[in-house]
Amino acid sequence: MRLTLNGRAVSLDVVGTRRLLDVLREDLHLTGTKEGCGEGECGACSVLIDGEVVDSCLIAVGQVEGRAVTTVEGLAVGGRLTALQQAFIEHGAAQCGICTRGAGGTRRESVPLYGLYENH
Ligand code: FES
Questions:
Q1: Which residue did the predictor score with more confidence, 71 or 116?
Q2: By 3-state DSSP, what share of the chain in percent is helix, strand and coil, each rounded to 5?
Q3: I need a surface site. Which of 16, 17, 22, 27 has the fewest CB within 10 A?
């Protein structure tokens, strides 16, 4: 299957019923996407699919064929942190880090914050 991952074309040989979360972490080593609850409640596994926030623990990788997936690793442009990412670092907002991608930009309630990522 093929998809666009963090702006790059990717070809995967995986069973389509596996969770997107597991393929991101185990096969693609994008460990910024975390598993918290594993049942769509915490947002630790949030990614963007075609610009929409999705809990990657609830979606099969086969469902993202031909689509654009963005993980927390793909938010910085040209390796440059966004203003919000930098602020998280400077103020120690990450704590244990499990919920950072949710609190900092990809959780549904934080969509306006995602706009900060997009605009800075
Ligand atoms: S791990 Fe909690 S919403 Fe996916």
A1: 71
A2: 40, 20, 45
A3: 17
